Amino acid sequence: MGHLAEKRLAAVVFRNSTLTRRPDAQDVTRRSHAVDIRMSAPSPTAPLIVSAPPRFAAVRPIGRRQYLRVDGFLTPDAAEAVYEELSADDNFERLNAARSGSPSLRSFGALQLREGRRAAEPIQSCFGLFTHPWFEDLISRLVGEQVRCLRPPRAYRLSRGDRLEVHDDLFDHRHRASVVLSFAKGWRRSYGGNTLVGRVARVEESRGSSAINCRWVLSRSNTLLTPRFNSLIIIPLRPELAHAVTTVKANLPRISIASIYGRLHAQ
Length: 267
What we know:
Blueprint: H1 3-14, E1 68-70, H2 76-87, E2 92-94, H3 95-98, H4 103-106, E3 111-113, H5 121-130, H6 133-143, E4 148-158, E5 164-167, E6 175-182, E7 195-207, E8 212-225, E9 231-236, E10 241-245, E11 254-262
Antiparallel strand pairs: 1-9, 2-3, 4-11, 5-10, 6-9, 6-11, 7-8, 7-10
Helix pairs in contact: 1-2
């Protein structure tokens, strides 16, 4: 980890940063809305890398909306340190670079830690956030039911030509929310790589060599979300909704960390 990242990390550990950008009113509504989720223990304290934790008490649950976005989720120093680590090739490599020839991986951009390397402290802290009791309780309140991290967080670095096809993440019936923390800097809609969220018009099935392949077709009622640096997006997982990432057109890295939350046990 470089000197700059170490300096930023020190700032994250030894002081709390304040919110530097007011969330867009369209994305985060500040009206409170009670949801009866019983916690068996006192509410855990938010990790130090989270910016202005008290503000989340006023964020109302997603309800029937298609997504929720919170800007400035991490402290500025933490966000910059994570971006610096994931944008470089020193410790992480793209899976498609390690396993060339797979069409699905070629248009996915997932990252893996290089052999013999250890993730730097900013990355460990950020990944740890996704399974932290405070964060799991926050996601539970926002989706309206008790959930936990079911799919370990994974980093992605999409580049020109990469995309993610329309899908619903319901390959496990326990899944309730897809959560993405974006580290795409200075992104514009014209760069592509936008998150598409919409209602499913129909699902087309075709039989492959070993399984049935599904193709989700969205209705015209959908939303295009341009990536914002250090923003958190929560997409509820329901059969009538699906999402995708449009093809990246710019020669810039589209960096994010994503995970899936759901019930621990089936009903």
